[in-house]
Design goal:
This protein is of the alpha/beta class. α3 (about 55-60) crosses α6 and α4 (about 100-120) crosses α5. The chain has a five-stranded mixed β-sheet. The protein has a single domain, classed as Uracil-DNA glycosylase-like domain (Uracil-DNA Glycosylase, subunit E), CATH 3.40.470.10. The chain has helices at about 10-15, 40-45, 55-60, 100-120, 130-135, 170-180, and strands at about 30-35, 85, 120-125, 145-150, 150-155. The longest helix is centred in the middle third of the chain and has 18 residues, at about 100-120. The protein is globular. A hairpin with a 2-residue loop joins β4 (about 145-150) and β5. It holds the Pfam family UDG. This is G/U mismatch-specific DNA glycosylase. Keywords: DNA damage, DNA repair, Hydrolase.
């Protein structure tokens, strides 16, 4: 297991506002996980879902995608497993509610182009509200979607942020497992 990046200082967190993190992406992945946007902690350390307490990595393991719980510093080890990570909006903010509807829609359009270029089998968007706004699908629910994005099948998952407290770690893992059981 890789070593977790040092906790960023208050000044480093403030400086991370508006920064971006490179995608973990290569052509032909089984599934491309798509967050809403990076938080300041992730922006400061340059890793996806990096804030301690974010439940993405435990849910990924609990859902059977990884052989053990990965640390965010091991994000590139997902690629050989056919898994990638991107975001609807690239810029880091303190909270997702700092993003405008126009910014989410523009991010959705950019994401569709990215998916078309890289051709993952599935796009898994973590965050129902962001998905609804970004793709103009106000009635979307958690789970598989009828529509595709950029030619890929879409599965919407709950946001794994610790702020999304009504989804328990076990519930998140179960939703991730439901997606995993539907992958080829």
């Amino acid at each position: 297991m890789a070593t977790r990046a040092a906790k960023p200082t208050k000044d480093q967190l403030a400086a991370a506002h508006g920064t971006t993190i490179p995608d973990v992406l290569t052509p032909g992945l089984r599934v491309l996980f798509c967050g809403i946007n990076p938080g300041l902690y992730s922006g400061a350390v340059g890793l996806h879902f990096a804030r301690p307490g974010n439940r993405f990595w435990p849910a990924l393991h609990g859902g059977g995608f990884t052989p053990r719980r990965f640390d965010p510093s091991e994000q590139d080890a997902l690629l050989p497993l056919g898994i990638g990570i991107t975001n609807v909006v690239a810029r880091a903010t303190a909270r997702a509610d700092e993003l405008s509807a126009d910014e989410l829609r523009a991010g959705g359009a950019a994401l569709a182009r990215k998916v078309e270029k890289y051709r993952p089998g599935w796009l898994a968007v973590v965050g129902i509200t962001a998905y609804r706004v970004a793709f103009g699908r106000p009635k979307a629910t958690i789970g598989p979607q009828r529509e595709t994005v950029g030619g890929a099948s879409v599965w919407v998952l709950p946001n794994p942020s610790g702020l999304n407290a009504h989804w328990t770690p076990a519930g998140l893992a179960a939703e991730f497992a439901r997606l995993n059981s539907n992958l080829p």
